[in-house]
Design brief:
The protein is α+β, with helices and mostly antiparallel strands. The chain is built from 14 helices and eleven strands. The termini are far apart. Bound molecules: fe (ii) ion.
Length: 380
């Protein structure tokens, strides 16, 4: 007997994500595209188109079209949304720069200008909603204009942290004002010390330490900001265990706002490139902070911060157990070790242009082996 299975040929152009067939669907050379009763995804269709396949074949027929969640959207949204904030971010940096320079020249801090910075950060965070976009923004900011960029990043991270803690709006505003003026005392430190290539001498380090007291004076005594705002300048280098400066305060002697500032300031300084030190990758920065956390920082605030940042922060790179390298594109607070990643190098070390997006919380056979430094990409 001569069996002939009748195959239906379907043009790839007519395939739509969510189509379910009653039998297996094959591409050219009988390569399996999708199993029976399994919805075809836009990724499957893209793959076929990229390979130039014009038709698929199935012995079955179209059963139904179901709605499916497309992973790809996540990646696009975070990177596109971060780019959209580019001019907003640059204008924040230049506002802070002008507030600091103006103070250096005239000893005056115009409250409205500070208020504007605080307002635009708050309203943008409310507008964008996805905190990962801002975490990504902080990580991709470049190293030029070190001080104003640092101040803006610290303010953004601090506001996110304040929200995560559950502060009411009024407290968030106060925190943001304090953070944006936190390092204003730095204008008194000679550029020669701030931009020193080599490590600082003890005298130079002592000089830098004075920015806390000078900042308090600038904000409270010379410009009538509240004492709470001034205490962020004065106490953001104090440490929970009493090892900070300038007054070696400890625990709750340090203002709540300054305890928040200490964490975001330390983290931000570590992920940025300084003239005398390479930037630490976000994973290392978080590990260092966690290692010191129990003694140096308020443990309750630190707990909220680490869950907010996730163990593998957005924008960092990781190696999977398949030896592929992936970029973290979204964190998952419920499973911090299983973020959403996008493959950038395959298991053979070949760069992948439009790699697969994987939700590690759903692909349990895949896991992160280790974080990868940006400089190591393509070499491992
Ligand atoms: Fe500082």
């Amino acid at each position: 007997m001569n069996f002939e299975i009748k195959m239906n040929r379907i043009p790839v152009d007519e395939l739509k994500p969510g189509m379910v067939f009653t039998r297996k669907v094959f591409g050219d050379d009988y390569e399996l595209v999708v199993d029976a009763n399994t919805p075809i995804t836009s990724k499957d269709i893209d793959r076929l188109k990229k390979r130039g396949v014009k038709f698929v074949e199935t012995a079955g027929e179209l059963k139904e079209i179901v709605k499916i969640k497309e992973d790809v959207v996540i990646e696009n949204s975070i990177e596109v949304d971060t780019k959209k904030l580019d001019s907003f971010y640059k204008s924040l940096v230049s506002s802070i720069e002008s507030i600091y320079i103006n103070y250096k020249v005239s000893k005056e801090i115009i409250p409205d200008k500070v208020q504007n910075v605080v307002d635009s950060i708050l309203s943008k965070i409310k507008e964008v909603k996805d905190k990962n976009v801002f975490i990504n923004l902080v990580h991709v900011s470049d190293a030029s204009k070190y001080l104003p960029t640092h101040v803006i990043n610290v303010t953004i991270l601090g506001v996110l942290l304040g929200m995560e803690i559950g502060f009411p709006e009024q407290k968030i505003r106060l925190l943001a004002t304090g953070l944006s003026l936190m390092d204003i005392g730095m204008v008194y430190i000679p550029m020669g010390i701030l931009e020193r290539e080599s490590k600082l001498t003890p005298e130079e380090y002592n000089k830098i330490k004075t920015h806390t007291v000078l900042g308090y004076k600038a904000v409270v005594q010379e410009n009538n900001f509240s004492n709470e705002v001034g205490r962020v300048c004065l106490e953001h280098h104090e440490r929970w265990d009493g090892t900070g400066y300038p007054r070696k305060l400890e625990k709750f002697q340090i203002s709540e706002y300054a305890r928040i500032a200490a964490i975001v300031d330390t983290y931000e300084a570590m992920i940025r490139k300084r003239v005398y030190r390479d930037k630490m990758m976000s994973f290392e920065a978080m590990r260092t902070i966690l290692a010191e956390g129990s003694t140096k920082f308020d443990p309750d605030i630190l707990k909220v911060f680490t869950s907010m940042m996730s163990i593998y922060p957005v924008g960092s790179y990781v190696m999977l157990n398949t030896r592929s390298i992936a970029k973290v594109i979204s964190s998952d607070p419920i499973s911090p070790f299983r973020p959403v990643v996008k493959i950038v190098y395959d298991e053979f070390g070949t760069k992948v242009e439009d790699g697969e997006t994987i939700k590690l919380s759903e692909e349990l056979n895949l896991f992160i082996v280790k974080p990868i430094k940006e400089e190591e990409l393509g070499k491992v």
